[in-house]
Amino acid sequence: MEKIDIKSMTPEELRAELPDLPKFRVKQIFSWLHRGVVSFDEMTDISKELRAMLAARYEIACAQIILKRVSKDGTIKYLFQMNDGELIESVLMKYAHGYSICISTQVGCKMNCSFCATGKSGFSRDLLPSEMLSQVQEAQRDENIRISNIVLMGMGEPLDNYDNVLKFLELVSHSDGMNIGMRHISLSTCGLVDRIYDLAEKKLQLTLSISLHAPNDEIRNRTMPVNRRWNVEQLLTACRHYSRETGRRISFEYAMISGINDNDQCARELALRLHGMTAHVNLIPINDVTDTGYKKSDIARQKRFISILERGGCTATVRRTLGSDIEASCGQLSRKHKGGNGYEG
Ligand code: SAH
């Protein structure tokens, strides 16, 4: 018989699952799970008999460190193995305000963006809420730190695993759990418009990041297949709705690819399209992924692009590149581990 995934349960679900236990006992179990124990034997204030009963019925999802790389700038990249052997990546970054972790939401990805290493490996499965929690917990445990910020920007498309991601958000922000507030969480999407409307209804205070990467359909159709399902205008309409409903500013990711989306006209068009929105543009020099042929735009181009955006009334910054010496961008490490050539240099 397959064991039940206990760490994905909310306190209410756990109480319903263990009706014979007193409430305080269930709360103890929940809080152990969210402190990141990997076995029931670590729950030292619970009787041996109860621990044995739990171990017989339930499984604790774990993220086992298979590989760890530390960059010169302190960024750490983890390659984690899930209980069933699947491999995923997370990146731990240190900022002035604390630690931030970029976690994966799926094993692989279905979106197939032309510049992304994750898409090249195909899609294997969704991650469970417990497996998203485990990435945060294991990094905390390994480095003996407390993580204050989470970005859902690793492998996978979070809105393509909508229910599990929402459950994860509920669990990770729970006051009896890790208690990481929504304002400390960002979710990045390539633009699943129907789900952006669903998410707007929840009125969560998280930061929504949109991977836009192109100012128009002509370019976006070429690099991001999702654009053929929902085009730029439909996406931006959903974003305006999201901003209105939640009162939150939206962040747009724009990976600059030399000769593809980085000329002056692209910058002007982008500024025009975002005009009137409470938005911020994050420019990212594209990370080289071999067999795409894409190259990053040079510094002069980045500066010129920003100045045009600013003149057009758009706030923009170039994202600090962290961990470039450890293949920190998503999909690069697991691809390499499995024998694919996910990186260059
Ligand atoms: N699927 C989600 C989140 C995962 S991708 C999304 O699309 O937003 C995380 C971010 O990395 C996205 O903005 C994605 O477009 C970007 N990205 C992927 N490959 C990249 C590369 N080679 N260089 C720079 N950014 C890349």
Brief descriptors of the model:
345 residues, DNA polymerase, domain 1, 2 domains, ten-stranded mixed beta sheet, two-stranded parallel ribbon, disordered C terminus, binds S-adenosyl-L-homocysteine
Protein model, in words:
The chain has 345 residues and is α/β, with parallel strands linked by helices. It has two domains: 4-59, DNA polymerase, domain 1 (Orthogonal Bundle), CATH 1.10.150.530; 64-338, Aldolase class I (TIM Barrel). Helix content is 35%, strand content 21%. The protein contains twelve helices and 14 strands. The strands form three sheets. It has a ten-stranded mixed beta sheet. The chain has a two-stranded parallel ribbon with strand order 1-2. Helix 6 (162-172) links the parallel strand 9 and strand 10. Helix 10 (264-274) packs parallel to helix 11 (299-311). The longest helix has 15 residues, at 129-143. Residues 339-345 have low confidence and may be disordered. It binds S-adenosyl-L-homocysteine. S-adenosyl-L-homocysteine (SAH) binds next to strand 10 and strand 12.
- The radius of gyration is 21 Å
- CATH fold-type name of the largest domain: TIM Barrel
- Molecules bound to protein: S-adenosyl-L-homocysteine
Count of strand segments? 14
Q: What can be said about the biggest beta sheet?
A: 10 strands, mixed
**Number of continuous helical runs:** 12
What would CATH call the class of the largest domain? Alpha Beta
Biggest sheet: strand arrangement: 3-4-5-6-9-10-11-12-13-14
Domain unit count: 2
At CATH level 2, the architecture of the largest domain is: Alpha-Beta Barrel
